[in-house]
Amino acid sequence: MPANLPPEYFKAEQRYLQAKTIKERIEATQEMIRIAPKHKGTEKLLKVLKRRLAKLRKELEERERSRPRGGRGTGFAIKKEGCAQVAIVGLPNSGKSTLLRMLTSARPEVASYPFTTRVPVPGMMEYEDVQIQLIEIPAVVEGSSLGKGLGTQPLSVARNADAIALVIDASSDPQPQLRTLVEELEAMGVRLNRDPPKVSVQKRQEGGIDVIGANLIEGGEEEIKRVLRERRIHNALVTVEGRISIEDLEEVLDGSLVYRHSFVILTKCDSAEGEPERLGPFPVIRAIGPIEELKRKIFENLELIRVYTKRPNEKPSERPLVLRKGSTILHVARAIHRDFELKLRSARVWGSAQFPGQRVPRDYVLRDGDVVELHL
Ligand SMILES: Nc1nc2c(ncn2[C@@H]2O[C@H](COP(=O)(O)OP(=O)(O)OP(=O)(O)O)[C@@H](O)[C@H]2O)c(=O)[nH]1
Ligand SMILES: [Mg+2]
Q1: Atom 7, ligand 1: which residue's CA is nearest?
Q2: CA atoms of 189 and 185, how far apart (whole Å)
Q3: Ligand closest in space to the Cα of 111
Q4: Which residues are close to ligand 2, an ion, with C-beta < 5 A?
Q5: Going by CATH, does the domain composed of 85-193+258-301 fall within 3.40.50.300?
Q6: Burial class (CB in 10 A: 0-12, 13-18, 19+), 32
Q7: What number does the ligand 1 atom closest to the CA of 101 have?
Q8: For 305-375, which CATH superfamily applies?
Q9: Residue among 186, 195, 235 at smallest CA distance from 211
Q10: pLDDT digits over 90-144, tens only?
Q11: Which of the four, 48, 298, 329, 333, has the lowest number of CB atoms within 10 Å?
C-alpha cells in the first residue's frame, strides 16, 4: 500500500467498507480514485480501483435490467435495430450531431456551445441494402466515467453498442481528444480494437484446479490457483492459449470487460490539412465528400459482409444476411437455422469463388456480396 495517500482517501475507503448499496459502493470507489494521487507508486492501486468500479457498474446494470417494469431503469438504453448498432462518441462540439444529420434522417440540434445533445439520439443509416443504427452519445469529457459532465450513463450506452465510432475534431490536435475518449471508455470496461485474452475457465463440480498452458501466464500455475481461490473457485479447468498477464485472467473472471470494434471519424476536415490515415490502432475516415462514399467507408470499417442466399434455380434473396467479416459457409447455415448446420452437405458460391457456382467446403471464407446456395 503506498504510504502517501491523504487522509480523505481513507475516509472514502471507510465509506466503501460500510456501504450498504451498490450505488454507495460505486460513489465511494469513484471518490477514492479521484483522491488518490496519480503517479507510478499508485498505478497498481488505481488499476485495482478502476477494475472494481467496472465490476460494480456491471452488477448495477444487471440488477436494473432484471428489475420488473415500473422500476427505475436507466431510461437511457436504446433498442437495437438494423444489422448493427454503432455509438458515435466524441468530446463536446466535435461535430457528432452534424455527422448524424448527414448520415441519417435524425435531426438533433447543432449548436456552437458544448453539451447541446443531452440524451442519446438514434438514427438509421441506409447504405445500399443494409440499415445500420447510429446513436449519438452525449459528449464525453475527461472524468465522465467518474460522473463528470453528463456522467456515466452516456458511456454505458456506448458500452452496449456493437461498434464505436470515435469522433475527432480535425481542427484541433487529435491525440489528446483520442486519449480522453479511449481512457474514459477503458474506465467503463470497454476495450477497443483489442482481442480478448486467450484464456478460458470452465468451472466443474470436482477435480480441483487443472491448468493447460500454465507457462504462458506470468507467475505460472501457483498464481492462477491463487487468483481462482480468491474468487472461491476450487474446481475448474483453465486453458491458456496465448501469452497473458495475471490481470488479464482476473478481468476474464470478473467478466466486467467488453471488447468492441472501433474506428475514428474525423470531422471539420475543411479546416485542417494532412490528416493521418490511422491514429494508433484506429483506422481513420474523413467526414468529407459524397455522403454515399462516407457511408461505404463506415460500412467497410464495421468489418461486416453481406451474403445473399438462394435456392437452386431461383434468384438470390433481395435482403442480405449480414455477418462478420471472416464468416464461412458454416456461419451462413447457422444463421439461417440451427438444423442447417448439421444437415449441410455442400454449398456453391457466386462472387468471390474462382468460377460462378463453384462448389466450396464448409470452412470457405465468404466476401461481401457473395451469393450462396446451400445443399442439404
Ligand atoms: N467548420 C465546420 N464546423 C462544423 C463541422 N461540423 C460541425 N461543425 C460546427 O461545430 C459545432 C458543434 O457541432 P455539433 O454537430 O452540434 O457538435 P456535437 O458534437 O453534436 O456537440 P454536442 O452535442 O454539444 O456535444 C457547430 O457550431 C457546428 O456548426 C464541420 O465539418 N466543419
Ligand atoms: Mg450533439
Answers
A1: 95
A2: 7
A3: 1
A4: 96-97, 116-117
A5: yes
A6: buried
A7: 15
A8: Beta-grasp domain (3.10.20.30)
A9: 235
A10: 999 999 999 999 999 999 999 999 999 999 999 999 999 999 999 999 999 999 9
A11: 48
